[in-house]
Amino acid sequence: MKVMICKPYIQTEDGKTRLTADIKAGDDTFSLWYEVEEQYAKYLVTEHSDSFVVVLLPWAMMKAKKLQESVTLTCENPLSARLYHQLINYYIPVLSDSISYYAPIKLETETDAQTLPCVGAVGTGVSGGVDSSYTITKYKDYQLQPYRLTHAVYYNVGIYGGFESCAEKGIQTKTRQIAHDTGLEYVQLTSNVCLTLYKAAHAPIVPAVFFSAALSLQKLFGVYYYSSAFIAKDFKMSEEDAAYYDLLNVHSLSTENLTFYSSGIERSRLEKLVSIANAPIVQNNLLVCLNVKEQAINCNHCAKCTRTMAELEVLGKLDNFRNVFNVEEFRKNKGYHWGYILLKSKSDVFCEEIIDIYKSQKKHFSLNVHWSTFLKWVKRGFTSVNKARRRVEDEIR
Q1: How confident is residue 69, by pLDDT bands cut at 50, 70 and 90?
Q2: How far apart are CA 120 and CA 18, in angstroms?
Q3: pLDDT per residue over 99-148, tens digit each?
Q4: Which of 132, 353, 376, 394 is 20 to 30 A away from residue 59, measured at CA?
């Protein structure tokens, strides 16, 4: 199958500007786009096809595996030479050799080693989460000016009930406030790439989605911090979560214009929380919730809310976060919350870290917690793994 990325072009309407490329994949034709507010339109990259290649790469490799046929990815506009070199020599071979749902593909395109005009801004994603908050706190006043944060980027990829949902608007309001309070320029970037290609923000493809979006603004950013979830010592070629190999991602997806850094690989999740837990802006704005029905507030019941509250509790910092969490409910329902943490501690590095700290404090779980853990294990089919989790390779376009 041949996949052609046609020349990217600009569309402007109602104060918003889109960088769009039409994609021809066999008999299928569709468009991918990145949209920004008018003041950032001049930074969108039409000269190169970098952003579209990066976001299509996992999709094309899954197609090659699923269809059991050769896939060739081509571009009408050139690809950055550094990116091309890294993809064909490292990224594609390593991914296809390590991940069962990927097969190698061919990448046939002209290349361009010339740098594009760039203002040299320094960006990172803003979500309100732990990893994002750590990056912003560390780099907003960084001593080396070329690496000091200037912009916070919120990515609206439509996963919270659509591009214009109440949840999306609530998160946008909160993240805009975080940027304002930390003295950073706020960039809102909306894109259909995630829903069009992958239907949801599956963990194996999240880096490709967000790296590609940053690459669409290479005339703005010279440095970009991608907030990593995992510490470097946990590096592995994981089929469940591409964040485990972020060191490979940042190396392979940088270009002549834009250098990616894996912010946070030097600290564990609990170490990050220790460093940010006393910051009022984090205490008042921490947003980790997986519940898409919530409007930029933590539901206090989902897996990420439970895990984050447990992390803060073992650190003795949970009371500092009463503005964003229901602390009394967490402590009242120990079976529900700690039962989940104990169950997941055998398969989740974050929960394992929590339990290690808990035990080091000479604390013990009540019978109620152990019983809750057992019931959750039985309900999941005698495993700590969520068997209902959707697999990205089954849901690609």
Answers
A1: very high
A2: 22
A3: 999 999 999 999 999 999 999 999 999 999 999 999 999 999 999 999 99
A4: 132
Q: How far apart are CA 122 and CA 223, in angstroms?
A: 5
What confidence score (pLDDT) does residue 385 get? Answer: 79
- Percent of the chain scored above 70 by pLDDT? 99
Residue 339's identity, in one-letter code, is G
CA distance 362 to 357: 9
d(CA 80, CA 217): 14
Rounded Cα gap, residues 158 and 199, in angstroms: 10
The number of CA neighbours under 13 Å toward the Cβ of 148 is 10
CA 244 to chain centre: 12
Query: In this predicted model, what pLDDT tens digit does every residue of 80-91 receive, in sequence order?
Result: 999 999 999 999
Query: What are the residue ranges of CATH 3.40.50 in the chain?
Result: 121-268
Report CA 351 to chain centroid distance, whole Å.
20
Beta carbons within 8 Å of 345's beta carbon, 6+ residues apart: 351, 352, 354, 355
Of 354 and 295, the structure prediction assigns the larger pLDDT to 354
CATH topology for the 121-268 domain:
Rossmann fold (3.40.50)
Confidence of residue 379 (pLDDT cuts 50, 70, 90): confident
Question: How many Cβ atoms sit within 10 Å of the Cβ of residue 387?
Answer: 7
String of DSSP letters for 236-294: ---SS-GGGGHHHHHHHH--SS-EEEEETTTS-HHHHHHHHTT-HHHHHH------TTS
Q: Tell me which residue has tokens 């940027």.
A: 179
At 368, phi and psi to the nearest 5?
A: -60, -40
Evaluate whether 73 touches 84 at the Cβ level (below 8 Å).
no
The Cα 236–Cα 53 span in angstroms is 24
Tell me the pTM: 0.95
Residue 223 near residue 257 (C-beta atoms within 8 A): no
State the residue for tokens 């979560």. 241
